[in-house]
Amino acid sequence: MDKIKVVIVDDTEETRNNIKTLLSFEKKIEVIGEAENGEEAIFITKEARPDIVLMDINMPVMDGIRATEEITMNVPETTVIIMSVQGEQEYLRKAMSAGAREFLNKPFSGEDLVRTLVKTYETEYKRREHSSLPKITEEVKSKVITVFSTKGGVGKTTIASNLAVSLARMTKKKVALVDLDLQFGDVAIMLNVSVKNTISDLIKEINQLDEELMDDYLVTHFSGVRVLPAPIKPEYAEYITSSHVEKIIKTLKESYHYVIIDTSASFHETVLTSLDMSDRIMLVSTLDLPTIKNVKSGLDVMESLHYSKEKISIILNKASEQFGIKYKDFENTLKHNIWAYVPEDSQTVITSANKGFPFVMTRTETKVAKAIIGMATEITAEKAVVEKEKSAFKKIFGF
Ligand SMILES: Nc1ncnc2c1ncn2[C@@H]1O[C@H](COP(=O)(O)OP(=O)(O)O)[C@@H](O)[C@H]1O
Ligand SMILES: [Mg+2]
């Protein structure tokens, strides 16, 4: 067995020296570098490609959580072990969400340290051998569609879930449905799937994430759609970052023909990432003034992000001209044509949500089901993939 290559990251020199001394007695472990803050840690890890980084949490310049996230994303062959002080439970949780695989409570003995290092290394080593088996899958041409609105309650989840089910039934291709309404997501309820794991569990293994592991986290709806549910508690949402979302979408694209994403009504960084990575954005509106005003501002933001007009399709839900606003006026205000109209049909929509049976399967004769099946038909007929946009996240946050 090769030596386990380790980088030590801690802002206190004494701590680094103590760890080095503890490890110097171990023939199978070699310390190949050290760093005194997160930024240095990233640099050294990229250069030296250690097997393991021993990472402190609180450090000047850049803390261990940011650095862990960065390393997990960019150097997936390196595993991070967090060193935390008892009582830093909250930090520890964040570090684990950022991709750390193990933790050591300070102060630790030489024995603890070596045992944890070797155990973590062996687990990772086995996992890698397992996942490097040749795959016999064909390359998938994937389409990412985000269903979005700057207003809540307009029908995003209804449309996203019924659209996903329509696509799966119509094409027999692989369809994934991601619930990115991270605080109040209700896709799992809408489709009545029993939730074992959610996106919160998945991000704990984000640095190992590949197609196979992803499969373990998705629940199957009886239509064939595979669902990634939102966290079970709103407070878990804050641990999910744009880089997690990026990795999730990238991984799904490798094996799913259609990736449908339901969102919250906000330009949260995770939603922006999803919009960036989408081939199409379905922007949902209804025909009342507050919603129109909101959707208009949403469109302005998207314009400032330089999303092309073709990338955005406006869906008018609960469409009817009987409340005083004409479709044409709506289009003129938005400077956008309506791409699809979905009629209001509370009886069908609400009953089906309550039973967990998507109406595109059980009530295909209704106008509302036909509208969504029509959308799916149009999507499957399209060949051209809209040119990828530059990252809006980068444009707004400047890195
Ligand atoms: N076309 C429609 N006709 C009748 N009711 C609808 C329609 N679309 C959505 N609804 C209802 O409107 C409410 C909000 O829908 P939902 O899909 O949860 O919106 P969002 O995800 O945008 O918050 C739900 O009660 C849903 O059943
Ligand atoms: Mg919703």
Overall description:
With 399 residues, this protein is an alpha/beta fold. The protein has 2 domains: 4-131, Rossmann fold, CATH 3.40.50.2300; 143-397, P-loop containing nucleotide triphosphate hydrolases (Rossmann fold), CATH 3.40.50. It is 44% helix and 18% strand. The chain has 17 helices and 13 strands. The chain has helices at 13-24, 38-48, 64-74, 89-97, 110-131, 156-171, 187-190, 199-202, 211-217, 242-255, 269-276, 289-304, 327-334, 346-355, 359-362, 367-381, 392-397, and strands at 4-9, 29-35, 52-56, 79-85, 102-106, 143-148, 175-180, 219-220, 226-228, 258-263, 280-285, 312-317, 338-342. The protein has an 8-stranded mixed beta sheet with strand order 8-9-7-10-6-11-12-13, with helices on both faces. Helix 3 links the parallel strand 3 and strand 4. Bound molecules: adenosine-5'-diphosphate (ADP) and magnesium ion. Adenosine-5'-diphosphate binds next to helix 6 and helix 14.
Question: What is shown here, in short?
Answer:
The protein has helices at residues 13-24, 38-48, 64-74, 89-97, 110-131, 156-171, 187-190, 199-202, 211-217, 242-255, 269-276, 289-304, 327-334, 346-355, 359-362, 367-381, 392-397; strands at 4-9, 29-35, 52-56, 79-85, 102-106, 143-148, 175-180, 219-220, 226-228, 258-263, 280-285, 312-317, 338-342. It is α/β, with parallel strands linked by helices and 399 residues long. The strands form two sheets. Strands 8-9-7-10-6-11-12-13 form an eight-stranded mixed beta sheet, sandwiched between helices. Strands 2-1-3-4-5 form a five-stranded parallel beta sheet, sandwiched between helices.
